[in-house]
Amino acid sequence: MELGIAGRTAIICAGSKGLGRGCALALAGEGVHVIIAARGAEALEAPAATIREAGGQATTIQADVTTDAGRAALLAACAEPDILVTNAGGPPPGEFSQFSLDDWRRAVEANMITPIALIGATIQGMMGRGFGRIINITSYSVKMPIASLELSNGARAGLTGAVAALARRSAPHNVTINNLLPGPFDTDRIRGNWARAAEVSGRSLDEVARDSVRSIPARRLGTTEEFGATCAFLCSTHAGFITGQNILLDGGAYPGTM
């Protein structure tokens, strides 16, 4: 399917690895010029090199987008993107009683305030030009809270509520806002979570990983390629009637009907 976004420009946050990388590769494959931001310069060059070798366009920006300076650097490189994919590493797991107010502030800053700041800086331009696609990578914990991830649950649910009305106000201008809610994907983060669970429980890493995968109806982890393809479609000209939605990609793990 021709997605109709060749020649567009996209900002991809945390695009050097994992789900962000999947989005960057998928959009670049559709002829989009991707501006990839991440904190690590060396890691950034890997997806950019892959994209360039395939004939695509990629610009890398070493920046921590959870900071004012990092966002300023990113927007200086691309002030008027057609597509914005917000993304940041999730806060650490733990027990509610152990979190300080500073822990909560850091989680909200990274996973709620940062996307809001980037949306605020770019959406008016999108509306004025008559095209825009904003994708927030959140988590399936928005629909199914995870006990050990209260920091993530709260910050990502806050972002979901913050953009819900805006998605309706921007829709007449052909600007959509949608949230992608990943469940268990084959990324460094889930493997890190498995390692911590194994340490706490005293079980082997293999046992924890096996039980985790067995709990997924699809009986496997999602791939970053699948995630990127979904993101690319939501950014396409065919997805202009989809806005304000929370789209689960979890292999059937969420047990609800809606």
What can you see in these coordinates?
It contains eight helices and seven strands; from the N terminus they run E-H-E-H-E-H-E-H-E-H-E-H-H-H-E. It is an alpha/beta fold. The chain has a seven-stranded parallel sheet, with helices on both faces. Helix 1 crosses helix 8, helix 4 packs parallel to helix 5 and helix 6 crosses helix 7. It is globular, with a radius of gyration of 18 Å. The mean pLDDT is 95.
Relevant terms:
alpha/beta; 47% helix; 15% strand; globular; single chain; 258 residues
Secondary-structure blueprint of this entry?
Blueprint: E1 9-13, H1 18-29, E2 33-38, H2 41-53, E3 58-62, H3 68-77, E4 83-86, H4 101-129, E5 132-137, H5 150-170, E6 175-182, H6 188-201, H7 205-214, H8 224-234, E7 246-249
Parallel strand pairs: 1-2, 1-4, 2-3, 4-5, 5-6, 6-7
Helix pairs in contact: 1-8, 4-5, 6-7
Point out poorly predicted stretches: none
* Helicity, as a percent range: 40-55%
Order of helices and strands: EHEHEHEHEHEHHHE
Broad shape = globular
User: Mean pLDDT score, rounded?
Assistant: 95
Q: Please describe the biggest sheet, giving its number of strands, its sense, and whether it closes into a barrel.
A: 7 strands, parallel
Radius of gyration: 18 Å
| Structural classification | alpha/beta
N-end to C-end Cα span:
28 Å
| Order of strands, widest sheet | 3-2-1-4-5-6-7
Number of strands: 7
Percentage of β-strand residues: 5-15%
Counted by DSSP, the helix tally is 8
